[in-house]
């Protein structure tokens, strides 16, 4: 997604928007789309919570669930323990619901779809066929797909605008839809699992999300099914002063397998935008889930103006024996990142892995890491974290490895490497380790290094310019993690690393 | 090809003059050797020519085919055809040797307005050149110079030289840390690259490399200047007598 595709501009598409895209600066997704939106009024109260629930045509139990969370949230305060500095957030000065007007009535054909919505996804590099479906055109599923299939759920501001390949997935028994649809169509699954990994009361941001989440993705893979294609959700914040609160729920039933990708972008705006998402993953006996994220929300400009505040709670529960989960994240965007994808290793012999690349440039601040909570016997976890800091950025790895008394013979290996570019940035490592039995083993290795002038000179003396040299050295540093990503994502992540570090040297 | 005229260079950080009026000319197709005792400024000369930070040029100039080198960025010098084989090749963890070379080759091609080399063509070329230097496929995949032996690092430098096909090659003590067999491989690699359009500046402490790479001219460097130049015999004389008499004679 590093190149702007040549756009076949359709009737009615705003020329100016297209040209803006083609002249983008270093943040390639910083353009916005002028689309007529329906907003809920600014601010947050019980009426807004009810309105969101009503817009999604939710049953009464769901509305109550949200209200319960909202009441709880009012008694909570923002966590302050992270190494992050940002101005006080006025939660009443945000919109909590925004939806493209054209989505009110589902368009039946391409002609009826708002061309700007179409163009948005085309510009983001999502293949045309998928994009047709993303824009909500019925029947596009029937057209033959080209290349490898990746089913996409696209979330534009507060609503899911479409999910691709639903029919084909349904044949395999896989349910992949927006969470609002799941609440309506599969209430028994949602009731059973929603909030079972991240409870409503979990933390300030998760509780806020529980009250106001507007959409997100839902996946259920039935017992013994290997999901026939990769699933992905594409999040786009477009509207100004609008928070995005998506909620993702993935259930991998016994012996199943699914690989899930998540991508995020947002327009370049000089005000900060709030994003507080929750991802819950339930992994049952012998099942395996891979969850990969490339997070590229707008990071703010080189002076630290604007950017997304990203407060995310992601947790996987390996609920039964031999369940396995692997988190891979490439965090290059956001002004503020507060994110700790975690694994609850409840089942005996369950396994959790966390691979992370976190890049902070200019004035970005990232406080990210993982929690590996070993509850079952013979559980295994592995953490590989690569933090890169440049400009004036601060990058913190914060991780917990906890071996409970019953988690005998368990093991953890943690490798935590930091790379500094320049002399004004910071890298911090905060590992918490708790071991409450005598047979488990925890290993922690950490390094901090600087991008070495000798390495850069060596590359340049062979003909690479300074930015190419930095990108090459940094990609080498991240290699262990890049290799854990699905192929296409790895390519995208590599070029993203280069883009994120533009202007970090010289 | 390479012309250096009255070059004066000091360290940027401290008031220490390293090169004090060095002049040198290497015509196309020739191999020149620079010999000299420790601290005479040989490595500084190679770094200054290739554009490393940390030096200040106070006087003089250096040109490659009439183009002033000293104003160019290191990558521009590389694209113009200058190559430095490092005395201590640098390790780049996580970056495959092949990836590194392909990035370098294509960066230079791009800078010269040429099309990038296709993967197939690149592979064909590198396999052939690696074979001549006794570099196996495994070594091409390993991260750049990481865990390489001294001999492997130097052979890798020559592989890069062969792939980048520079016109002006500077070799900074390429013989240091090499056993006899490795030295022969390196020398064979260099000799295979010799041609009417390519020149070499071979910096060395010892005469033994020059047994394998026959120079056209030998320069003796001391205290930041060339104090004597001559034919291959001059290197033999140094080997026998040391620098003492010669430097005393040069004053």
Q: What amount of the residues of chain B lies in strands?
A: 25-35%
List low-confidence stretches of chain B. Answer: none
Large-scale geometry of chain A: globular
Structural class of chain B: alpha/beta
- Oligomeric form: heterodimer
Helix content of chain B: 25-40%
Predict the CATH topology of chain B.
Rossmann fold
- Radius of gyration of CA atoms of chain A, rounded to a whole number: 22 Å
Helix content of chain A: 10-25%
Number of structural units classed as domains of chain B: 1
CATH architecture title of chain B? 3-Layer(aba) Sandwich
Structural class determined from secondary elements of chain A? alpha/beta
Strand order of the largest sheet of chain B: 6-9-10-3-11-12
Cα distance spanning the termini of chain A: 26 Å
* H and E order of chain B: EEEHEEHEEHHHEHEHEHEEHH
The low-confidence parts of chain A are 1-25, 127-148
Largest sheet of chain B: 6 strands, mixed
Radius of gyration of chain B: 18 Å
The CATH homologous superfamily of chain B: P-loop containing nucleotide triphosphate hydrolases
- How many strand units of chain B? 12
Biggest interface pair, counts: A-B, 23 and 32 residues
Organism (chain B): Paracoccus maritimus
Family (chain B): Belongs to the ABC transporter superfamily. Ycf16 family.
Protein name (chain B): Fe-S cluster assembly ATPase SufC
Pfam families (chain B): ABC_tran
């Amino acid at each position: 997604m590093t190149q702007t595709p040549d756009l076949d501009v359709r009737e009615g598409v705003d020329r100016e928007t297209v040209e803006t895209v083609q002249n983008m600066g270093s943040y390639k997704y910083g353009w916005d789309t002028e689309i007529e939106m329906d907003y809920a009024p600014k601010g947050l109260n019980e009426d807004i919570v009810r309105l969101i629930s009503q817009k999604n045509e939710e049953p009464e139990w769901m509305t109550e669930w949200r209200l319960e969370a909202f009441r709880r949230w009012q008694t909570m305060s923002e966590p302050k323990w992270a190494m992050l500095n940002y101005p006080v957030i006025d939660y009443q000065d945000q919109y909590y619901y925004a939806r493209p007007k054209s989505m009110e009535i589902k368009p039946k054909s391409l002609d009826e779809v708002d061309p700007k919505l179409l163009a948005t996804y085309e510009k983001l590099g999502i293949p045309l066929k998928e994009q047709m479906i993303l824009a909500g055109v019925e029947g596009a599923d029937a057209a033959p797909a080209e290349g490898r299939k990746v089913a996409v759920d696209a979330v534009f501001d507060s609503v899911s605008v479409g999910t691709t390949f639903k029919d084909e997935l349904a044949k395999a028994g896989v349910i992949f839809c927006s969470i609002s649809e799941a609440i309506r169509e599969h209430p028994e699954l949602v009731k059973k699992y929603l909030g079972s990994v991240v409870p409503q009361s979990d933390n300030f941001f998760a509780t806020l999300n529980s009250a106001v989440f507007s959409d997100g993705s839902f996946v259920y893979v039935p017992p013994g099914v290997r999901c026939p294609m990769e699933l992905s959700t594409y999040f786009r914040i477009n509207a100004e002063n609008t928070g995005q609160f998506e909620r993702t729920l993935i259930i991998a039933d016994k012996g199943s397998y699914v690989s899930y990708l998540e991508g995020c972008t947002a327009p370049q705006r000089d005000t900060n935008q709030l994003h507080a998402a929750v991802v819950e993953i339930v992994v049952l006996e012998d099942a395996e889930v891979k969850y990969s994220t490339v997070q590229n929300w707008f990071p703010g400009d080189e002076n630290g103006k604007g950017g997304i505040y990203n407060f995310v709670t992601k947790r996987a529960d390996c609920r039964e024996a031999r369940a396995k989960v692997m988190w891979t994240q490439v965090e290059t965007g956001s002004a503020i990142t507060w994110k700790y994808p975690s694994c609850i290793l409840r089942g005996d012999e369950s396994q959790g892995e966390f691979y992370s690349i976190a890049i902070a440039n200019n004035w970005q601040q990232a406080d990210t890491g993982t929690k590996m909570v070993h509850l079952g016997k013979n559980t295994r976890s592995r953490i590989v974290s690569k933090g890169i800091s440049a400009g004036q950025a601060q990058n913190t790895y914060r991780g917990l490895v906890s071996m409970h008394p019953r988690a005998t013979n368990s093991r953890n290996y943690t490798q935590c490497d930091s790379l500094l570019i320049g002399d004004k940035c910071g890298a911090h490592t905060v590992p918490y380790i708790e071991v409450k039995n005598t047979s488990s083993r925890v290993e922690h290795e950490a390094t901090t290094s600087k991008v070495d002038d000798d390495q850069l000179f060596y590359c340049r003396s062979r003909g690479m310019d300074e930015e190419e040299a930095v990108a090459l050295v940094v990609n080498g540093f991240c290699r262990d993690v890049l290799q854990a990503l699905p192929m296409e994502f790895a390519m995208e992540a590599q070029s993203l690393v280069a883009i994120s570090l533009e202007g970090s040297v010289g | 090809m390479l012309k250096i005229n009255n070059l004066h260079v000091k360290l940027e950080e401290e008031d220490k003059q390293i090169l004090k009026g060095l002049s040198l000319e290497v015509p196309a197709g020739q191999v020149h050797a620079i010999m000299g005792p420790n601290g005479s400024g040989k490595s500084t000369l190679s770094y200054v020519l290739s554009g490393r930070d940390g030096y200040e040029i106070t006087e003089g100039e250096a040109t490659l085919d009439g183009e002033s080198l000293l104003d160019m960025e290191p990558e521009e010098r590389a694209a113009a055809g200058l190559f430095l084989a490092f005395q201590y090749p640098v390790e780049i963890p996580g970056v495959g040797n092949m990836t590194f070379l392909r990035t370098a080759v294509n960066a230079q091609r791009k800078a010269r307005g040429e099309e990038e080399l296709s993967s197939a063509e690149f592979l064909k070329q590198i396999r052939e050149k690696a074979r001549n230097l006794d570099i196996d496929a495994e070594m091409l995949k390993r991260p750049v110079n990481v865990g390489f032996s001294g001999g492997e690092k130097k052979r890798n430098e020559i592989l890069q030289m062969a792939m980048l096909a520079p016109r002006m090659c500077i070799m900074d003590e390429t013989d240091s840390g090499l056993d006899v067999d490795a030295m022969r491989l390196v020398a064979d690699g260099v000799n295979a690259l010799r041609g009417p359009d390519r020149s070499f500046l071979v910096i060395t402490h010892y005469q033994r490399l020059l047994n394998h790479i026959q120079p056209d001219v030998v320069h003796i460097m001391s205290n930041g200047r060339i104090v004597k130049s001559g034919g291959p015999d001059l290197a033999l004389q140094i080997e026998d007598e040391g620098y003492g008499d010669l430097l005393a004679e040069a004053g």
